[in-house]
Every structure is written in C-alpha cells, then in structure tokens.
Amino acid sequence: xxxxxxxxxxxxxxxxxxxxxxxxxxxxxxxxxxxxxxxxxxxxxxxxxxxxxxxxxxxxxxxxxxxxxxxxxxxxxxxxxxxxxxxxxxxxxxxxxxxxxxxxxxxxxxxxxxxxxxxxxxxxxxxxxxxxxxxxxxxxxxxx
Length: 144
Hints:
Blueprint: H1 6-20, H2 26-40, H3 43-55, H4 60-65, H5 78-91, H6 100-134
C-alpha cells in the first residue's frame, strides 16, 4: 500500500509527527496505541508499541496488565485510566461513542487542547490498526 498510496502514508506520518509534538508524553501516546491495538486485534501494532513503551521506560508489569487495566487500576494513574476509558469508547465507537461524562471529565482533567490531541491520537492509531489488520501484517519473530 505504501507504494500504491505514498501521499496517504506521508499524510499519516505528518499526523504522527504533529502528535509527537503534542502535550501527550511518549508513555501516554504508547498506552493509547497499545490499548486500541489490543481491542482491534492488530498484533503488529501491539508488538511495535509495547517495544516502544519499554524504550521509554514503561514496566513489563504494566504492559502485561493494560488489557485488564480496570482490575489493575492501582498500577495506573487516574489520568492513564481516563486515557484507557476514552480509548475504549472511541475505538468501539459503534457501541456508544465518546460519552459526555468521559468527555467532560477529560476537559476538566486535561483541558480542551490536550483532550483534542488525545482524540486525534486515538483516531490515528485506529486508522493504522485498520491498515495493519486489512493487510494481515504480523510481527516478526524476535531473534533471541
């Protein structure tokens, strides 16, 4: 696809660059990407973003427990829990969409600008996930 639609890929890369300079820290971005990728069943992206999160200092324990963050809430900050909840509602948008309750909570905690950036981050990883799943992209086996 990158050879067939290079301008589209460049646009996505530009969006990634913009988000890399947003108010979201690297770990917040990776947590969003991992949770959305888990929901969407994109093994390629889960693999990539857990590796990236480790590089940024994320712990193995927290990475393992992202999929069950509600049951492991004591390991995640209130801000991170809100990121996961928003990520789930937007990723599963056909079920409810982003609820007014979560949106208002995000505005209160993060402010309008960062909340908009969070929504853009979630939308962007969902697009990457759809590309990865559609093209049956799989993670390469790590060499031990």
